[in-house]
Design brief:
Elements: H1 11-27, H2 38-45
Length: 50
């Protein structure tokens, strides 16, 4: 598993760590497991829409 340092000290390190994490997830073919449906999201978020 990818382990980033606890504190990112500068922008270049942040960019480097972000790319490393992205590459790790892509190489291991990780996917997003959405735990809600579009209908559930619309119901919960409808109070924020006009």
């Amino acid at each position: 598993m990818y382990n980033a340092p606890e504190r990112i000290k500068n922008k270049n390190l942040l960019i480097s760590e972000t790319k490393a994490y992205q590459n790790y997830r892509n190489e291991n073919k990780y996917k997003i497991n959405w735990n809600f449906t579009k209908e559930n999201a619309n119901e919960k978020l409808s109070k924020y829409y006009i």
